[in-house]
Amino acid sequence: MRPNAGTHNCGLRRTLIIDSQRIFFPGFPGLATGLGMFAIIWLAVYLKSRGRPVLFDPAGKHGEFGKALLPIYLDITKTVLGLAAGSIVLLVGSMSFNQSTGRRSLTAFASPLFLVAMTIIYGVLFMILLALSYEHHLHHPNEPGAYTMLRYTRNQSLGFSALACFCISYIWLIAAATK
């Protein structure tokens, strides 16, 4: 082993990190994490649900999902969306008003902020597509394709991805803030 092999390797790693930041924008790791998380969650939900019948209403009682579960799902999602949007506004606003930190420090939070934004995107899509799927199911209760496996896995994946992105973004924000 050469005497400078360890330092050369460290320099190479640092160069790769710097070069990747030049090629991609500062929040790219957060965006990639959010998209990757959605793909992994969708795959997991699909594999878990494969071969099972897709039923919207619990115990087969038509309209029961809309009375009991839909409002709960929407309320949880609205709470997470409110916290996520508030986090973006608070962090960007506080960094903008603090002249001593400057613009450079906001780039340290770019990836977790993109992940928080992915939380909002996934959460809004979850709410819209879940409501549309349920409405379609109500209007066409006997249609075999009223609620397909694709719609089920999409809705599940969007909801869980919003929650997972929110949790991971907060862990990432804490790590970035305490660096």
Which key features would you list for this structure?
about 180 residues, mainly alpha, Four Helix Bundle (Hemerythrin (Met), subunit A), 6 helices, about 75% helix, elongated
Account of the 3D structure:
This protein has 179 residues and is mainly alpha-helical. The protein has a single domain, classed as Four Helix Bundle (Hemerythrin (Met), subunit A) (Up-down Bundle), CATH 1.20.120. Helices cover 77% and strands 0% of the residues. The mean pLDDT is 83.
Oligomeric state, counting identical vs distinct chains: single chain
Helix content: over 70%
Q: Outline the biggest β-sheet.
A: none
CATH topology: Four Helix Bundle (Hemerythrin (Met), subunit A)
Helix-strand topology string: HHHHHH
Q: Mean pLDDT across all residues, rounded?
A: 83
Rg over CA atoms, rounded to whole Å, is 21 Å
Question: In summary, what is this structure?
Answer:
This protein has a single domain (26-177), classed as Four Helix Bundle (Hemerythrin (Met), subunit A). 77% of the residues lie in helices and 0% in strands.
